Amino acid sequence: MLPPPETQRKATQSGHIPPGLGRQEVAIMSSRQWQGKADPFGAVAVSLVSGLSDQQKISKPPFSQFKEVYLPPVLHPLNKTLVTGDQWKDVDSIQERRRSFLYEFCKKYNSMKKLRTHLVHIVSRIYVEDRHKVLYCEVPKVGCSNWKRVLMVLNGLATSVRNISHDDVHYGKHLRKLDSYDLKGIYTRLNTYTKAIFVRDPLERLVSAFRDKFEHPNSYYHPVFGKAIIKKYRHNANKEALETGSGVKFKEFIQYLLDSHRPVGMDIHWEQVSKLCYPCLINYDFIGKFETLEEDANYFLQLVGAPAELKFPRFKDRHSSDERTSAEVVRQYLKELSKEERQLTYDFYYLDYLMFNYTSPTV
Known about the structure:
By secondary structure, the chain is an alpha/beta fold. 45% of the residues lie in helices and 7% in strands. It has helices spanning 5-14, 23-31, 42-49, 54-58, 89-109, 119-122, 144-154, 166-171, 183-192, 202-214, 221-233, 239-244, 250-258, 273-276, 293-303, 327-334, 339-348, 350-355; strands spanning 68-70, 114-116, 126-129, 134-137, 176-177, 194-199, 286-289. It is globular, with a radius of gyration of 21 Å. Its EC number is 2.8.2.-.
């Protein structure tokens, strides 16, 4: 029912819009790449923008090969029996609004009643802490390093968050992920543990990832991503840039991000949250935001009965002398892009903006 991907790409580049599709629909379709894998959010995104009938959505062939996963029929209340003191009243009120907003969003736009995908795949980014029955979906550039430190302390693997190095956090393999359990273990934890996700303004998260991975020496991102990006998108690149992959410009990075034929695949640091944590398939109990990270995190620790002395760390994990990525910093980076590139970048994260009720940027 939709034009093939090549038609979508050419239509976006040429400015010609196929009959029956608006410019925004083509932009979203052309930017929503999944590297050959089925995208269970495809139906949600298309239903948001293209007005397909229910029968057309149900009959789309990619869904036929997947196991069924059902959106929970009710929004379960948070267990607040372990929360003490009145200082959490405002935080709790905000939390309830976020939970309700996401649930109503998913219920409204998931008109298929059920989406089908591999269960093991949708839980592959979720970390497990069994002592306090916590499931945490990792979204990079949203305080994930410090969150994993907290989980290690909760699990008795360390006595203090300050004693855990960056390498131990990311390469030590001290924490188990939910996909390492058998199906019974996965279902039991999904149904009984407190499930948390922390998110951030999508473009702010994107710029933060770019600054971290491409503006500092990096033995992985420069040779793997940098070399491929410079080779494809930089005209007359010099030998040093081609050999090292260092010095990728933000505009080149965005060209890679929006390219339907990327020279190298996606990465979790700039992948959409909708494809990392599947918020409409997993009924998250707690939705924290980077903008209120410390108070959200400490309220969550109260909810799960963490030791009173354990607080969410304030320190920045790496590049501590750098200015934090803020809305103003993002605006400076966006100036390097054309108006069309800014719009397409926003379209790329369209679902994330909608799901978590972030204000659309001025692009």
